[in-house]
Specification:
alpha+beta, 4 strands, 82 residues, two-stranded antiparallel sheet, 17% strand
Length: 82
């Protein structure tokens, strides 16, 4: 994961983002396991490279599509677009 101080953005690869989200999901399950109401998390990840459509809307649509694939695949899923 790289932080660009002048642009205020963070960049990473889709596989690295998937690892981060797996850690987040694991930590949330541990911290919230004794709650009265169970919860699930589905995550969609999309990434851009030099060959990707440069429009932000395209990236958001890819992440949204990945999110719905994760939801269809079951509870507590992380799905990477592509």
């Amino acid at each position: 994961i790289q932080r660009h101080p002048h642009r205020g953005t963070v960049t990473t690869t889709a596989p690295a983002a998937q690892v981060v989200m797996q850690r987040v999901l694991h930590n949330l399950k541990e911290k919230l396991q004794n709650r009265a109401h169970p919860f699930t998390i589905s995550v969609g990840i999309a990434a851009m490279d030099e060959n990707s459509d440069p429009r932000l809307l395209s990236l958001v649509k890819s992440a949204d599509d990945a999110l719905y694939k994760a939801k269809r695949n079951g509870k507590n899923q992380i799905w990477v677009a592509g």
